[in-house]
Amino acid sequence: MTLLSQIRLFVDRRLNFPVGDDALVLDVGSGDKPSWRADVLLDRYVGEEFAGQRSGTGAARVSRPLFDADAAAMPFADKVFDYTICSNLLEHVPDPAAVIE
Asked: Which residues share a beta bridge with 67?
């Protein structure tokens, strides 16, 4: 894959989202590196004891609302968000189908 192809793929997967600027976006499993477009974050492992699974430093520090909750039992009403990002998470949960549901 050429460098230009890699850049295009990165832009398509990480920067271009099919929602307007006023859409409410949830990032599930965001850790301390959430999507730039996410308005609300959800992660189960935000404390210092899980730093090694993230960037290796302390508790997750983010500037947006961060909910410490299980992705399979999110504390939100249905249809609250216009778009949900869930990147590199399903391979780490015991029941991926429950998270998708």
From this structure: 42
Distance CA 30, CA 87 (A): 8
**What is the per-residue pLDDT across 26-76, written as a single tens digit (0 to 9) for each?**
999 887 678 888 999 998 866 666 665 556 565 556 778 888 899 999 999
Q: Label the pairing between strands 40-43 and 66-68.
A: parallel
68 φ, ψ to 5°? -90, 100
Rounded Cα distance, 27 and 72, in Å: 14
- What is the structure's pLDDT at 58? 57
Phi then psi for 64, rounded to 5 degrees? -120, 165
Question: What is the torsional sign of CA 14, 15, 17, 20?
Answer: positive
Write 34-39 long-range contacts (CB < 8 A, 24+): 34/62, 34/64, 35/85, 35/87, 37/85, 38/64, 38/85, 39/64, 39/65
pTM: 0.77
